[in-house]
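Annex B. Sample input.
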Amino acid sequence: MVCALSCGGLLVGRSHECDFPAEVTGLPVCTESKLLPNSSSRQIDEQIHNLLGASLSIYRLDIRLMQELKPDLILTQSQCEVCAASEADVARALGNWPGSPPQILSLTPHRLADVWEELRRVAAVLGVSEHGKEVLRALKVRCVDVIEKACLLSRPSVACLEWLDPLMGAGNWVPELVELAGGKNLFGEPGQPTGRLRWEELRAANPDFIIALPCGFDLARTRTEGSSLRNKPGWSELKAVRNQRVFVCDGSAYFNRPGPRLVESLEILAEILHPEKFRFGHEGKAWQK
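Annex B, continued. Sample output.
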């Protein structure tokens, strides 16, 4: 968001997961995950539940480094305590801050409209409100370009999977993106957290499309984890499988992050669901069959 607002030069630090645009990767890293590296999807889920069950954060903050960087503003989030360091984590880190602590701006988007509003808030606190309006206008125009074409097309049923073991149907802004791209979303409610999904439910729904976009996984990791779905009972009988309409996406770069690249996420869905109408050039880099 900061870089989209042409304010990247103000950044002095980042989280371990902030990696776009590429120039931010040179910034000092102020957080790390407590999850064990190279864990499977099932192991990650178990580790998360164990940490949260013990009222522990999933992330560590490098408080000494943050104090050395002396930021005026810390951008954080309270949308999901699993996905990134939370506002509570940051507030604890500022408990013994020497002198006047930095301002905290915590973002809590649940739907697409919330993402636009949060971008407006960030622009305001950075003092670039007018430029923020232009950035928002350009993003919304790209969305409208997709919506105007997609609304005239057939609406295939779609299952978006935000986790694969255990299965979870994508919530929050993803159901909206599916509908705007010309699909009929089957699992997950707009504005509601991602929820668990029983395999029997997916099998009974028999979607036209299955799209895997696990939280925090890139395209290669998603393809590897997604191979386990082939072992599910009745997999080969599903309509999406028979018609070769099963896809993997880079959820980490696009669908999982409530920022400007949700517009690219909408374009990705439009390309997948209606390839005869949409060609944005995301295939191969952001999604694969």
